[in-house]
Write a structure and sequence with these properties.
single chain; 243 residues; alpha/beta; Rossmann fold; 9-stranded mixed beta sheet; two-stranded antiparallel ribbon; 34% helix
Length: 243
């Protein structure tokens, strides 16, 4: 029997019909400003409150900036520092060494990152993992086959370790009609897409679950908002009440 894990994010577990299979590797994709990093951080926060240690690997942002942005967005969550200090949430910066390296050296660099991630997970005992953002890793390998092979190694390692992970990814367009599936999307167990529609002053945010291996889930594209107490995703039950 598959063990189901709750994300703890309001409305998201409802969309997931209760939660996510333990050990799944999920891609959370969207355009700039959709809230990918914030939602991933809240996933770690909610799970830390449930007793599950989590770690966020940042590939392009400074850890202090991620913490500050989370505190500003989620001002009602006053115990973020406590969870960081206790080790229930860890944020690690993975520095990419690109420079003028050739293709073989860059592939080696990708492999180093995969090994570092595994070593740190094992050291911290984390059960929940966020990698923000895997789009940066595409800078390391230009050959499509080599990139897919490298991403497969990353996903396979996370599965073997047995962690539940969210990997954020950038989309070239926030519009649902312009959705493009990248190679890594086919390797993940789950895909959730964050869309932005409308004008800047009247922008609407919506979430869609494309797939989730091992469990049932809603196929409804669902509005969400980012509040001072966390994400608020309109549940399927809430939508039904409006009909």
């Amino acid at each position: 029997m598959v063990n189901m894990a709750k994300t703890g994010i309001k409305g998201f577990d409802s969309m997931l019909k209760g939660g996510v299979p333990e050990g799944n590797q999920i891609i959370l994709a969207g355009g700039p400003g959709a809230g990918k990093t914030l939602m991933s951080f809240e996933f770690l926060y909610r799970n830390a409150k449930m007793g599950n240690k989590g770690i966020l690997f940042t590939l392009d942002e400074e850890p202090a900036n991620i913490v500050n942005e989370a505190k500003l967005a989620f001002s009602d969550l006053t115990d973020i520092d406590d969870l960081l200090e206790s080790g229930m949430i860890t944020i690690e910066k993975e520095d990419l060494s690109v420079g003028t390296k050739d293709e073989s050296q860059l592939s080696y660099e990708f492999g180093r990152i995969v090994s570092d991630i595994e070593a740190i997970i094992n050291k911290t005992g984390a059960k929940r993992v966020v990698i923000d953002t895997i789009t940066v890793l595409s800078m390391l390998v230009s050959d499509p086959i080599a990139y897919r092979r490298s991403m497969l190694a990353l996903v396979s390692n996370l599965r073997r370790i047995g962690v539940l992970s969210i990997m954020t990814a950038e989309l070239p367009s926030p519009e649902r009609t312009k959705l493009e599936f990248k190679p890594e999307f086919f390797l993940a167990d789950g895909i959730a897409i964050m869309y932005q529609t409308g004008e800047e002053a009247r922008r609407m945010l919506a979430l869609e679950i494309i797939k989730m291996r091992g469990s049932d889930h809603s196929f409804v594209t669902t509005p969400y908002e980012i509040t001072s107490s966390g994400f608020r995703i309109t549940s399927v039950d809430d939508i039904a009440k409006l009909d």
